[in-house]
């Protein structure tokens, strides 16, 4: 592929640079694999353009619902004498490139809507994707919303695709950092969950070949620092991409540059101290929310179809039936079936 492209469009042969620098032309082995990474990082995929506007509307509705119920829950907690800390403290180190707990809206970039309109705010309540319980945020993480888990890239199986990114559910569900110039090749990201972190160097995803295989790193379950070795690209401009695994969450809080493992440990310790007031508040608030009786919970329920009606909702087609199948009707049907036997 590289040999054909160079002969056709450049009028030179570069194939010998695969093993050593070119003997006659100014083509190094690094140039060869840079070209290889560029060509093989391209991939074919289809995107559901017809659903973009619908997804945008759904994302706005979800954001409005979150804001509405966060206000209600916050008021309920205040009535119980639980007040969130009034002051939020942040790290101000020059080594911190991006702090998602205070990322400006203009720099909160993503492909799609899976990461919501902003990162989670400390002291506000959110639903836990694993337990379904409402819990108070303590750290200010940017977290993908589970409702979008079904969105995946559509790639033709017949197309030979050597790009590692093509195998990831990236399309429409990627958080990306602002573009920056790399001054130190050690980039570390504080993340939790499962997925991948990738570096897009000079607008190209160079991930194939011995020179570029370090620009994408897997993230495994749990909170941890993930470090990318990008020393080769110092002086280049790049951005980072955070891609959650299918049906999984990947949260991001910090991106740092040039810190050693020991310094990252010190960052963890400082974050724990900064988060301590919110952690103490969250412990009390979460305990209170668990004790809230069902009568109070009903006032926070958006819709309960046990009423047996779709009033106020738009029903298209016949998949959901003319009326909801309530627990009462289902139990009656089961009882009738047992009598017939």
Provide a descriptive summary of the structure in words.
- There is one protein chain.
- The N and C termini lie far apart (70 Å).
- By secondary structure, this protein is of the alpha+beta class.
- The chain has helices at 2-10, 29-40, 52-79, 261-291, 294-298, 327-340; strands at 96-99, 109-112, 125-127, 134-136, 142-143, 173-176, 180-181, 186-193, 195-201, 216-219, 223-229, 237-244, 250-257.
- The chain folds into three domains: 2-40, no CATH class; 50-291, Sandwich (Jelly Rolls); 305-333, no CATH class.
- It is flat and about 80 Å long.
- The chain is 29% helix and 19% strand.
- It contains six helices and 13 strands.
Helix content: 25-40%
Main sheet overview: 6 strands, antiparallel
Report the portion of residues in β strands. 15-25%
Average pLDDT taken over every residue: 81
Given the C-alpha coordinates, what overall shape results? flat
Domain DUF1549: 1-42
Pfam families: PSCyt2 (PF07583)
InterPro entries: DUF1549
Organism: Stieleria bergensis
């Amino acid at each position: 592929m590289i040999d054909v492209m160079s002969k056709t469009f450049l009028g030179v042969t570069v194939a010998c640079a695969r093993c050593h620098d070119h003997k006659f032309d100014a083509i190094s082995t690094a140039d060869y694999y840079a070209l290889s990474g560029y060509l093989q990082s391209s991939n074919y995929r289809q995107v559901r353009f017809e659903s973009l506007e619908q997804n945008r509307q759904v994302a706005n509705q979800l954001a409005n619902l979150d804001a509405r119920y966060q206000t209600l829950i916050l008021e309920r907690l205040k009535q119980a004498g639980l007040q969130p800390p009034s002051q939020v403290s942040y790290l101000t180190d020059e080594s911190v490139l991006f702090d998602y707990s205070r990322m400006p809206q203009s720099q909160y970039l993503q492909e799609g809507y899976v990461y919501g309109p902003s990162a989670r705010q400390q002291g506000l309540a959110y639903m836990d994707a694993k337990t379904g319980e409402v819990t108070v945020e303590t750290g200010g993480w940017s977290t993908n919303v589970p409702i979008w888990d079904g969105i995946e890239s559509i790639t033709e199986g017949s197309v030979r695709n050597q790009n590692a990114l093509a195998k990831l559910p990236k399309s429409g569900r990627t958080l990306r950092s602002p573009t920056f110039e790399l001054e130190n090749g050690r980039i570390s990201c504080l993340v939790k969950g499962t997925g991948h972190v990738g570096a897009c160097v000079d607008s190209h995803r160079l991930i194939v070949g011995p020179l570029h295989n370090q620009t994408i790193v897997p993230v495994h379950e749990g909170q941890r620092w993930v470090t990318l070795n990008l020393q080769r690209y110092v002086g280049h401009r790049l951005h980072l991409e955070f891609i959650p695994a299918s049906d999984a969450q990947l949260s991001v809080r910090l991106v740092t540059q040039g810190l050693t493992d020991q310094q990252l440990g010190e960052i963890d310790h400082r974050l724990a101290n900064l988060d301590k007031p919110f952690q103490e508040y969250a412990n009390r608030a979460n305990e209170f929310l668990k004790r809230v009786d069902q009568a109070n919970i009903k006032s926070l329920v958006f819709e309960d179809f046990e009423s047996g009606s779709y009033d106020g909702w738009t029903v298209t087609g016949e998949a959901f039936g003319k009326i909801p199948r309530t627990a009462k009707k289902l139990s009656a049907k089961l009882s009738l079936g047992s009598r017939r036997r």
